[in-house]
C-alpha cells in the first residue's frame, strides 16, 4: 500500500465494480473469476492476488458492516501510516447464539447474498465476528469514545496499537 500511495500518479479508487468482466457462469450460477487483484506500481498491470494479512482488528472492522453500516470508509492515512477505526455503535445481533449452533449451510443461506460463491473462509469469518461482537461491547472497545489507531512496525511489519 505504501508504494501504491507514493506512486507519482494520483489514484483515487473508491470502489471497483467489474461486473461481467469478472464473471463466469458455472451450472447457471454467476461466479467471480477473481476474488482479489493486485496492481504493479511499476507497470500498472493487474494480477490475481490474495491478502493473507487482513490488518488489525479484522473482526471489529467486520462488525461495522454486520451492524448495518454499509458505507465504505477510508481508514488508512498514507501520509502518517496510521490505520484508524473510528468509534461506532454495535451490539451482538439478536439470534447470534442461535446461529452459533447452526451448520455452515444455514449460515451461508441466511447471511450471504451469494451463498454458492462465497470464499471458503466466509462462514468462519461471520462466526468469529459475531463472537467478537458478543465478547467485546462497543463501550469497552471504544473507551471514552476514542478511535482505535494502529501503525505498522518497520522491523516486524506487524500492526501495533498507537495510544
UniProtKB/TrEMBL annotation:
Gene Ontology biological process terms in this record: ubiquitin-dependent protein catabolic process
What are the GO cellular component annotations?
nucleus
Q: Which GO terms describe its molecular function?
A: protein-N-terminal asparagine amidohydrolase activity
Lineage top rank: taxon? Eukaryota
Question: What is this protein identified as?
Answer: Uncharacterized protein
Species of origin: Phaedon cochleariae
Amino acid at each position: 500500500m505504501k508504494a501504491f500511495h507514493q506512486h507519482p500518479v494520483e489514484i483515487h479508487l473508491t470502489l471497483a465494480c467489474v461486473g461481467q468482466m469478472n464473471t463466469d457462469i458455472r451450472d447457471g450460477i454467476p461466479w467471480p473469476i477473481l476474488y482479489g487483484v493486485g496492481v504493479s506500481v511499476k507497470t500498472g498491470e493487474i494480477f490475481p492476488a490474495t491478502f493473507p494479512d487482513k490488518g488489525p482488528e479484522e473482526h471489529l472492522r467486520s462488525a461495522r458492516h454486520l451492524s448495518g453500516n454499509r458505507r465504505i470508509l477510508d481508514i488508512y492515512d498514507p501520509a502518517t501510516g496510521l490505520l484508524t477505526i473510528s468509534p461506532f455503535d454495535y451490539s451482538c445481533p439478536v439470534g447470534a447464539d442461535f446461529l452459533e449452533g447452526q451448520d455452515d449451510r444455514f449460515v451461508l443461506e441466511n447471511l450471504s447474498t451469494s451463498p454458492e460463491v462465497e470464499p471458503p473462509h466466509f462462514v468462519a469469518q461471520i462466526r468469529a465476528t459475531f463472537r467478537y461482537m458478543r465478547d467485546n461491547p462497543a463501550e469497552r472497545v471504544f473507551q471514552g469514545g476514542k478511535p482505535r489507531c494502529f501503525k505498522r512496525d518497520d522491523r516486524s511489519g506487524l500492526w501495533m496499537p498507537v495510544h
